[in-house]
Write a structure and sequence with these properties.
Layout (H helix, E strand, L loop, with lengths): L22 H5 L15 H16 L23 H4 L10 E5 L1 H12 L7 E5 L1 H5 L3 H10 L4 E4 L2 H9 L6 E3 L8 H7 L2 E4 L2 H13 L4 E8 L7 E2 L3 H8 L5 E7 L11 H19 L6 E5 L1 H6 L7 E4 L22 E6 L2 E4 L5 E2 L5 E2 L4 E6 L16 E4 L2 E6 L7 E6 L16 E8 L2 E3 L1 H8 L3 H7 L6 E3 L1
Parallel strand pairs: 1-21, 2-3, 2-10, 3-4, 4-5, 5-6, 6-7, 6-8, 8-9, 9-10
Antiparallel strand pairs: 1-11, 11-19, 12-15, 13-14, 15-18, 16-17, 16-19, 17-18, 19-20
């Protein structure tokens, strides 16, 4: 074990990542080209030198695995191959990543399918890059698990799915700008429609290309965000339904309070929606696929399943509210991981991070991990969250920085608590479960006074994903 030095430096970790020989070997150039290693140098230096020079002379894989050409004249330096460099995984470029459990998506999708009636379709909502989980992989997994439709928020989100060879029906859950109409038609994506101007331009463009213009009618039943007012739907259809290219595929609304304990506003919206659908049918308009239930409503209210339910946050194993928690078993899909990049003993009373709001109490080690608020770990969690190291919770300390944060490992032993010995390269969990220790997005959301949706999306800002 390295001895603590007066300035708090505890020496370099003796642990090497798998396959690591030396920095010089990783760069593809021997550290001591043209010279012998220092006779009194550490054994590791001589071993690195011998490995690197052997690889240099033989052209073997290892030191030069990223070189453009192993065979070259003596003395000519290695040249990096950009194609090989691109093969280095993202998690080997930075020690922070999210893990996405596709089996959990399968479980959650199946759990909701079991709650809905036979014949009721299921739309997997993969907007916002699958709520931060990766739209393409989540969409394909959901479709393979029983989903029939996909829902997105933007034209580009739909195009991403199409270019990934996803062929299921895709609905944009809002009305895009008229300038995007050619993209809708080319990529066979359905918009939501609620203005006659858009509807007619959409139909005209489709007619010019000799194709249909499918859409879903959005109905405003009280959320007052988008949609044709519930008592004006017949009038609206009279303004647009004459066009031969328009094809009303579905009619939907969105509930504002399906996740709330109070149900009055929800019941008002249900009543208005049923009246709007009835009015359309009475006027001779087929509303197509009728859908209203989001995750909360699909779990709580069987009587609003209609022809399709929309599974959003629940698909990712996050409950829309505490009300649904005892009603269905959902498994979190995302966990957030990092490796320790620095370990140091900070003397008593010395501060840590910007503002030095935290002062070392002594008998602790301060560990750094490369995750910060630019990665979705909100600065408001500073000193108010934990990480999990080797199954044990450790308190995050100091202000969370843009790219890094620190946590404290108590070196004292008391009760049944075991002493941890953190090392550079050790893996920690910022969100997830290890043994009996668990940290959830709900925990963080409750601390911040926000919702789990916001945090899930935030962790997709720049950390690579690993699908398991």
């Amino acid at each position: 074990m390295a001895q603590d030095l007066p300035n708090g430096f505890t020496g370099f970790s003796q642990r090497r990542p798998n396959g690591f020989v030396s920095a010089s070997a990783a760069m593809g150039t021997p550290r001591y080209v043209g010279a012998q290693p220092p006779a009194n140098g550490p054994a590791g230096s001589r071993g690195a030198y011998e490995a690197a020079t052997a690889a240099f002379s033989s052209g073997a894989e290892g030191a030069f695995q990223y070189a453009r050409d192993h065979a070259r004249p003596d003395g000519e330096p290695a040249q990096f191959d950009p194609d090989k460099l691109r093969l280095i995984p993202d998690i080997d470029r930075r020690w922070a990543w999210t893990e996405i459990d596709l089996n959990a998506i399968r479980h959650n999708t199946s759990a909701v399918k079991q709650r809905i009636d036979n014949g009721v379709r299921l739309m997997a909502v993969v907007k916002a890059d699958g709520y931060g989980h990766g739209a393409v992989r989540c969409a394909k997994t959901a479709l393979n698990s029983g989903a029939d439709y996909l829902g997105v928020a933007t034209v580009n989100e739909a195009i991403e799915l199409r270019e990934a060879l996803v062929n299921a029906p895709i609905l944009i859950l809002s009305q895009p700008p008229e300038t995007a109409i050619p993209l809708l038609l080319a990529y066979k994506v359905m918009p939501s429609v609620y203005t006659s101007e858009f509807a007619i331009q959409y139909a005209e463009a489709a007619d010019a290309f000799g194709v249909r213009a499918p859409y879903h009618l959005a109905v405003n039943t009280g959320m007052n965000r988008i949609g044709v007012r519930h008592d004006e739907v017949v009038e609206f259809m009279g303004q647009v339904s004459f066009h031969r290219a328009l094809d009303l595929v579905g009619t939907f609304t969105h509930f504002a309070t399906a996740d709330s304990a109070e149900t009055l506003d929800f019941q008002i919206q249900v009543k208005r929606f049923i009246e709007a659908i009835t009015a359309l049918r009475t006027a001779g308009v087929n509303p197509g696929i009728v859908h209203a239930a989001n995750s909360a409503a699909a779990i709580r209210y069987p009587d609003v399943q209609f022809d399709m339910v929309r599974l959003g946050i629940g698909m990712y194993g996050l409950h829309p509210s505490g009300v649904t928690r005892p009603m269905i078993d959902l498994r979190p899909v995302m966990s957030v991981h990092a490796r320790i990049t620095d370990v140091r003993t900070v003397p008593m009373s010395e501060g840590v991070s910007y503002g030095m709001n935290y002062r070392s109490p002594g008998s602790v080690k301060i560990c750094t991990v490369p995750v910060g608020y630019a990665d979705g770990l909100r600065r408001g969690l500073s000193g108010r969250t934990d990480v999990i190291l080797k199954g044990q919770r450790c308190h995050q300390v100091g202000n969370i920085c843009m790219d890094q944060c620190m946590f404290e490992v108590d070196l004292r032993v008391y009760g049944s608590r075991r002493r941890l010995d953190p090392l550079i390269g050790d893996e920690v969990l910022l969100v997830g479960r290890e043994g009996d220790s668990v940290i959830t997005l709900d925990d963080m959301a409750n601390t911040l006074g926000t919702i789990n949706y916001e945090l899930a999306v935030g962790f997709a800002l720049r950390m690579p994903r690993v699908y398991v």
